[in-house]
Amino acid sequence: MRFVAIGDSFTEGVGDELPDGLVRGWADLVAQGWANAVGKPVEYANLAIRGKLIEPIVEQQLEPALALHPTHLSFNGGGNDMLRPRTSIEHVADLFMHVLRRCDEEGVKLIALSGANPSAQLPLRRLIQRRGDVLSAAVAERLADRPDVITAWNWPDRELSTPGYWSADRLHMNPRGHHRVAARVLTSVGQKPPTDWWSLPELEDAGLRGAAYYRAHVLPWVQRRLKGTSSGDGRAAKYADWVEVTPQRV
């Protein structure tokens, strides 16, 4: 089994920070859960980089990922595009089909994901909800006649959209959220996740409120938009080549 993941912060694992400062996230959890479930090592790579729009994900990550000759490739993108008013949702959905075509050509099984829905906690929540609904529906419609594609639709999950699954910035899932997504992906590939991954105990709410939240999280995002920079600038993929994930006793 050779599993490679491409995408943005959702797939890199932002919000699920480990004590050493590295991030884990749902894809890392899937690799470990998969190895545990089958009782064999899983080869795993993760080329996702935070802040990436969907075109750079496809242009910069897809071909290097396919060059690794995986058996399975997971793809999610468009969350950062969705926050930009001029984004063409149809174009984003079309890029999902491009990824599928390349996977078909290379004999790779595609795992298509929709991102989780952060809108309830964010400014401009109605706009984000509406655009996310349209994007989620557009991708699902494109893939409706391909039952062979593995899908893990997280956007419609109302439980996952509640505050207890989100980190202090309200835009990225916390460890609890990443475990729930990992449980959905493992289920979609025919493996049984640990039952508690669906809803780990709630974490202490350390989030900021009011103006403090805007200064800490919204203002830096706005400044990056104005400067044309990204939180992922200068960052490399955390697992650009295969790492072996061995089964653990649970």
UniProtKB/TrEMBL annotation:
Name a GO molecular-function annotation. hydrolase activity
Q: Which InterPro entries match?
A: GDSL_Rv0518-like, SGNH_hydro, SGNH_hydro_sf
The source's domain of life comes to Bacteria
An example of a Pfam family matching this protein is Lipase_GDSL_2
Q: Where is the SGNH hydrolase-type esterase domain?
A: 5-179
Record keywords? Hydrolase
| Protein name per Swiss-Prot or TrEMBL | SGNH/GDSL hydrolase family protein
Instruction: List the taxonomic lineage.
Output: Bacteria, Bacillati, Actinomycetota, Actinomycetes, Micrococcales
